[in-house]
């Protein structure tokens, strides 16, 4: 700790800020289905997830070692590169949170790190084989494996108990959901908290504080675990809404199958040192569970937007990281400008989020509308307002978009016009 310079301190704080955003960005991974099915109240769910994320941070350091000594070559990398990488990752995390898209915080960090390293030292600074084997292949395989496992588990669950007593079965599966959600939270701590440990350790290596290949110091493990736990407790309600209600409608049986499948994939990857996206694993499991129930559907419009965000995460965060590194290379004023971009961009995103706030009170509601919410949009409302009414009635569209019907007055109605005189 005595060797930490001002720049290194800034990088450590920025890394913990990223860890915090990772926490509230990924709360949905563990708790979205539990909240949407009513197994736990929103605040209780995020509190439980926060505690287990903290515990999980102490269980392994394999992923941290992959980050600190695998993706990029440690030799010749400046501390400013780490700072630039974190700027790219944080801004992408906040933007996708604003849009309610469950993108990968892990890939945002990798993209920022790769972009900044390439801008600093060229393509030779990147270990291509490690990126392919421990980042890209798991990125494709994890959601597929989790989705197929969740689909099979859901089908098996409904087949075993084809005509269950609704109340008793739902209660049992809700208890199972709580246990599996806790397992996902624990797995998330073992995987995602380590990424921040790895990035801080990498920064310490660049300053000569620790030797290359070292495990994260204890204070790094503790601070990373606390930061991700605090972010988790804050709750990323926008993404919880998308994962719990936007992708599909889940019953307790499906929620249990999805969370158990995702937790198994994440824990296995953490043991192997694969730094996969917990978001993609959990999203794939939710979609698989949605398809596994007879009559279940996946809202593909939401899923498509999510897939696009997945594909853009690495290159977008990489471009921002490269731009930030270009600034930091200019000297102290460039580092200050990069910090200003980070703070200013974060403030703008937060202000925009206040226009349509989502919190624990409305995370399961339909009051915000959207393409999959069932609330009529502008075009639908406008068409309804000018469409001719059906025979015998007058149609009106109220301000809130709800359609009402006013029946035409009958012959005995005082408001009815006088009947024409009969011909003599």
Attribute tags:
2% strand; 424 residues; mainly alpha; 2 domains; globular; 14 helices
User: Which percent range fits the helix content?
Assistant: 55-70%
> How much beta, percentage-wise?
under 5%
Overall structural class, as computed from helix and strand content, comes to mainly alpha
> What's the rounded overall pLDDT mean?
76
Written account of the structure:
With about 425 residues, the protein is mostly helical. It has two domains: about 5-355, no CATH class; about 375-424, no CATH class. It is built from 14 helices and two strands; from the N terminus they run H-H-H-H-H-H-H-H-H-H-H-H-H-H-E-E. The chain has helices spanning about 5-35, 40-55, 60-70, 80-100, 105-120, 130-160, 165-205, 220-235, 235-245, 250-270, 280-290, 300-330, 330-355, 380-385; strands at about 395, 405. A two-stranded antiparallel ribbon has the order 1-2. Strand 1 (about 395) and strand 2 (about 405) form a beta hairpin. The longest helix is centred in the middle third of the chain and has 41 residues, at about 165-205. Residues about 365-410 have low confidence and may be disordered.
